[in-house]
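Can't paste images in this forum, so I'm doing it all in text. The chain is below; anyone willing to post the predicted structure tokens underneath?
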Amino acid sequence: MATEKPKQPKGKKKKQQGRAITEDEGDGDEEGPTLQYGELLAAKGKGNSPFLKENVKSTPHSTMSRLSNLEKGNVENMRKMSIEHKEQKQLLQSERQRVLQEDLSILANGTILLKVPHRGPARKTKFYVKNAKEQWVVYWDSKNKSKEETTFPLKECLCALGQGQGLFKERSSIGVLKSKDVGHSRLSFTLMFQERTVDVMAETQEDFDRWCRVLRHVGVILDTHSGYT
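Text version of the structure:
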């Protein structure tokens, strides 16, 4: 007669799938058995630990590649924009230099301005700006005065734009260009020296702008608060 196998007492440990657990623990609703410290070390040595970096969920390689390419594209676009901005800046500077050299050449050969005298209407007079003996000077043609008498250094000159200084301020009439409706105030300027003032009007906006560019280039301060309207 077969003998009945004795029941295993509660709390006794039994082996299940290579792990030491109790029957009570095996009957629970837990997600899975807990690895003991020694088994974690063994798993780490074999390279199959659930805590190893390669087993941790991370951003898919395709996403990382797309983001990396996108950032590289942004950097490349910024680099191209920087190069284009630098090239545009260089072109602008080059154009300014070209215009300035052209202005200096024109004024060295002389241009016509309407010079305001103490009496009578404004008269057409040829004015020049040149670099003489390492300093910039302005002078004009005169039938009654020598070149030395009409030559003044621009080093300490102040230019008042408009008709708020000099003879413009003293005289209420300057001949045919006495009406502000023709825009003469915006084409006028007064060169103020220690000895005297020289009051002139440009015939065109282009001539006025050219004189302003050259005067500013040679160090003359342009004052816009003296009647430039």
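The chain has two domains: 45-109, 111-223. The first strand starts at residue 13 and ends at 16.
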